[in-house]
Amino acid sequence: MDVSKRFLVKPGSKIKLGEWDPGETLGMDRAEAERRLDENAEAIGRLQYRLYAEHTRSLLIILQGMDAAGKDSTVRHVLRYVNPQGVLVTSFKKPTDNELAHDFLWRIHRQTPRKGHIRVFNRSQYEDVLVVRVESLVPEDVWSKRYDLINAFEKNLVEGGTTIIKIYLNISEQRQREKLMRRLTDPDRAWKFEAADFETRKKWPAYMKAYDDVLEKCSTEHAAWHIVPTDKKWFRLFVISQIVRGTLERLNPRLPPLKIEPEAAMRLLDGID
Ligand code: AMP
Ligand code: MG
Hints:
Layout: H1 3-6, H2 30-54, E1 58-65, H3 71-78, E2 87-91, H4 97-100, H5 106-109, E3 118-122, H6 131-134, H7 140-143, H8 146-159, E4 162-170, H9 173-185, H10 195-202, H11 204-217, E5 225-229, H12 233-251, H13 262-270
Parallel strand pairs: 1-3, 1-4, 2-3, 4-5
Bound molecules: adenosine monophosphate and magnesium ion (MG).
Adenosine monophosphate (AMP) binds at residues 67, 91-95, 123, 127-128, 131-132.
C-alpha cells in the first residue's frame, strides 16, 4: 500500500479533522517502521546529493501542526543523512515590526529554496490564516482572501521549478497534553516550555476549524496537503519519510555530465597548450 496516497488530501474534498485518526498506524509494527524510516532517510540523502548537483529544481517541505506535534523532531529524523550544505530550515515566529510593515507573503518569499536546495518551513504562510484568524489579529475580510493568495503564490513557486510537500501533523488533544506535560517534568525539555502554548490549547476547537479550512481550500493539484497521524512518533516519521522519498524519486534528479572533453581537461590540468 502507498502510504503517501493514503494520507493525501484530494483537491476538492471536504475535510473534517475529527474524521482523521491521529493514532492510526495501519497495523504496522514499530520495529519495521523504524527500519524503513532509516532506509528512506538514506535514500533521501542520496537523492538530495543528485538534486544539489543537478542545480535546476528545488524542494519545499511545509510542516504545520499544533504545539508539540513534532515538527522539530520530524526535521531531525527525516533529514538525518542529508548534507547540511543543501538543506535550510526556516522556523517562522511571530512577525517582527519590519515583517508586519509588508504584505504577509513578503517574509515567506524571501525564504523559498534556491535551485538545488531543500528548504523546510517549520510553520509557514499558513499561520496567517491559523493563529491570525483564531486570535483575530486582522479582520475577517483580510484573512479570508488569503487562501486564494496562498494558492496563487504556491503556483508561482511550482511554475518556477519548486516542488511543494505540505504536511499537517495531526496530533490528538490528549497526546498534546502528555507532550506538554513532559516539558514540565523532564529537565531536558524544560527549555521548550511556553506559557502561551497552554493558552493556545484552550482554543483547540477554533484551531481545528481553521485547519479544516486550510486543508480544504489549499489542497491543490500543484501543492496538495497530507494529513499525517502523529500520536505515534515512529509512524509519523515513517510516513513523512515515505512521502519525501517518493517525491524526490519522482523528480529523479540527474547528475550533470562532464562539461568538457576529458582530453582537453587533461591538457589544462597538466598545463600543456
Ligand atoms: P514555535 O514554533 O514554538 O517557536 O512558536 C512560534 C510562534 O509564533 C507560534 O505561537 C506561532 O503561532 C507564532 N507565529 C508564527 N507565525 C505567525 C504569524 N504570522 N502571526 C502571528 N503569530 C505567528
Ligand atoms: Mg513552541
